[in-house]
Amino acid sequence: MTPLLETRSLSYGHPGRTLGHDINLDVQAGEVHCVLGPNGGGKTTLFRTLLSLLPAHAGSIALGGIPLASCTSSERARLMAYVPQAGNSYFAFTVRDVVLMGRTAYLGLFAAPGVKDFDAANAALAELRIDHLADKSFTQISGGERQLALIARALAQESPLLILDEPTASLDFGNQTLILQEILRLKASGRSVLFCTHDPDHALQCADRALLLHQGNVLALGAPREVVTAANLHTLYGVEVELIEDVSRGFAFCRPRVRTLNSSL
Amino acid sequence: MNTRLPALTLAALALLFALTIIAFSVGRFAISPSDLLIVLWAKLSGGTHALPSTYDAVIFQIRGPRILAAILIGAALSGAGAVYQNMFRNPLVSPDILGVSSGAALGAVLAIFLALPILAIQGFAFAGGLLAVAVVYFIGNAVRGHDPILALILTGVVVGTLFGSGIALMKYLADPYNQLPAITFWLLGSLSSISPGDLWVAIPMVLLGLVPIFLLRWRMNLLSLSDDEARALGVNVSRMRMVIVTCATLITASAVAISGIIGWIGLLIPHAARLLIGPEFARMLPLSLLLGACYLLAVDTLARTMASIEIPPGVLTALIGTPLFLWLLAVTHSRARSGA
């Protein structure tokens, strides 16, 4: 099957400064891929390159078999949706207005959203169970609700692949769990998700594949249980981590070692 | 569901209509609404009326052009202000953020300094406005490695200051008995000397800028997002921004060229419209245009009837605008908090 997103020997970075080489990704329909790495490790730059917001330095990116460079901006938007962090500042749009903006790629230059677009926006709000927020001001809802609204906007975009830039950043514990739950729901509905996070547990919990980025380059790429190891995490973050596995229930999680002065637990 | 005009926009339209009738009626030569109707009907139907010909002169030669100018310039400045505030994601931005006013002012002051005729003053003002924005846009795009919006605004401020010092120099060098009053008068803005001929030039120019903005009004919302978001949603951000800056500059420069600098409207009216109807641009733009037209028409009518001499509207816009705006700020804030 043609992957939704495929990169071959991709080099990426800012103009004039290459950050990393040899990124080979294959995102198939219904898969969740997670990118892990420290701050400044290149996660955001890689995502911006995949979204065609930065030019690739070398190698190729294809969307559904079509080279990214030959897609128009609206073709690209129909194949791949971007969910930014909820921290950006916005005018006090209603949540519905924000979600409707996801319909841009389907609208003519001079057109405004019509009945079909309102239906798509309402369906997206319903799918994330935030219909009650539709007429609220985007600036007056909580961070978690804002992140859900931005995911709803990506759903209204009706693209099979969603790229989420640190969707759990600056959210509280409950909202982080809520977002992970939504990522698994998106997967269950057949969509593909590519997201990055600071928490290795997020990769272990809901990703099919994990990409570990170390100083821009690939440290490891594979099934989370195989690549999220104590050694790799030490390389990435420079801290001691213990992986605790429950083989019978089939899960694992990370426990960083925090030393106090007179004990080491 | 999008074709329905919000009640507020309809109310603003009614207000503009009422203000237009009042503006025709009041003044040193009072005209009752019924007489106004008789004269207008005679003009439209090509017939005659029994009223003295003074009525025709006042309505079509004196008040008509001025009222039309107030509506046009008020709408133009607040429309351009709405565009810039949306595009720069900043409600404190005015139409002259990219230096169009200071460029136009320098052009006009230069023409006055060189003792050129009125037409040349307007031409210089228009050219100066366009030139200033072209310079700002070119430099703002040339400095790489910065947030493009921030680069544009900072360049606008810096270039505006540079042009401002040029104006100050001209004022210093100008003949204090003839040129300096003319310069001051122009910098304060006025609608009193606008002729029908000026309008025939300015109306198509303003429409030329306004029509693309009006057509793109829904898509304008996306320019208020971060560039990355807008591009990922399928917008060609840099091309659209260039088109919009060109249009808004054309609008502002055409207005400023015939009226001089009338401050406040472009800052205050779009903000008021946003407080009243929300930031969604397709809803906000029509209200902003109408309120701008209403406001300048009301201010200009006051300016010519309040006292025996004309008060420059540039002075009145701020004098009336400040308390009005603060009141609006207070009222809408408390409403937002109560969740209504």
Please state the CA-atom Rg of chain A, rounded to the nearest Å.
Answer: 19 Å
Q: Regions of chain B with pLDDT < 50 over 5+ consecutive residues?
A: 334-340
Beta-strand percentage of chain A? 25-35%
Proportion in helices of chain B: over 70%
By oligomeric state, this entry counts as heterodimer
> What is the general shape of chain A?
globular
Instruction: Characterize the largest beta sheet of chain B: strand count, sense, and whether it forms a barrel.
Output: none
Average pLDDT number of chain A = 92
User: What is the H/E order of chain B?
Assistant: HHHHHHHHHHHHHH
Give the termini separation of chain B.
22 Å
User: How many helices of chain A?
Assistant: 9
Instruction: State the separation between the terminal residues of chain A, measured CA to CA.
Output: 48 Å
The DSSP helix count of chain B reads 14
Structural class of chain A: alpha/beta
Biggest protein-protein interface? A-B, 38 and 29 residues
Low-confidence stretches of chain A: none
Task: Please give a quick description of this structure.
The complex is a heterodimer of chains A (265) and B (340). Chain A has 265 residues and is α/β, with parallel strands linked by helices.
How would the blueprint of this fold be written?
The complex is a heterodimer of chains A (265) and B (340).
Chain A: E1 5-14, E2 17-23, E3 26-27, E4 32-36, H1 43-50, E5 58-63, E6 66-67, H2 73-79, E7 80-83, H3 95-100, H4 115-127, H5 143-156, E8 161-164, H6 173-188, E9 192-197, H7 200-206, E10 209-214, E11 217-222, H8 224-227, H9 230-237, E12 241-246, E13 251-256
Parallel strand pairs in A: 4-9, 4-10, 7-8, 8-9
Antiparallel strand pairs in A: 1-2, 1-3, 1-5, 5-6, 10-11, 12-13
Helix pairs in contact in A: 4-5, 5-6
Chain B: H1 7-25, H2 33-45, H3 53-87, H4 100-113, H5 118-142, H6 148-173, H7 179-188, H8 196-215, H9 220-223, H10 227-232, H11 237-259, H12 265-277, H13 281-305, H14 313-337
